[in-house]
């Protein structure tokens, strides 16, 4: 599986999604896509950033949509 921008943007704020990919390079590509989305300011309204973790042995990348914190109010 190739992780696309659409896949990443579909992750709801505060949630994570694990993707099983075909090769290690796909993990790096998915992580780079998260950085690209942040740098191009294409984040959904309630997402502060995306956090990524990887398992190269099992070819898994886990992407978390970190929710924006509002001042003094829990969302």
Description:
The protein is an alpha+beta fold. It has helices at about 5-10, 25-40, and strands spanning about 15-20, 45-55, 60-65.
What is the strand and helix layout of this fold?
Elements: H1 5-9, E1 16-20, H2 24-39, E2 47-55, E3 60-67
Shape: elongated
Write down the oligomeric state.
Answer: single chain
Strand order of the largest sheet: 1-3-2
Q: Mean pLDDT across all residues, rounded?
A: 93
Q: What is the H-and-E element order? A: HEHEE
Low-confidence stretches: none
Distance between the termini: 33 Å
- The helix-and-strand class reads alpha+beta
Helix content: 25-40%
Strand content: 25-35%
DSSP E strands, number: 3
Largest sheet at a glance? Answer: 3 strands, antiparallel
* Total count of helical runs of at least 4 residues: 2
Radius of gyration: 13 Å
């Amino acid at each position: 599986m190739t992780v696309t921008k659409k896949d990443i943007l579909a992750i709801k704020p505060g949630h994570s999604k694990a993707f099983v990919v075909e090769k290690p390079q796909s993990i790096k590509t998915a992580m780079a896509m998260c950085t690209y989305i942040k740098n191009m300011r294409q984040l959904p309204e309630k997402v502060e950033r995306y956090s990524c973790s990887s398992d190269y042995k099992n070819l898994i990348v886990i992407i978390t949509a970190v929710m924006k914190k509002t001042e003094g109010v829990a969302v």
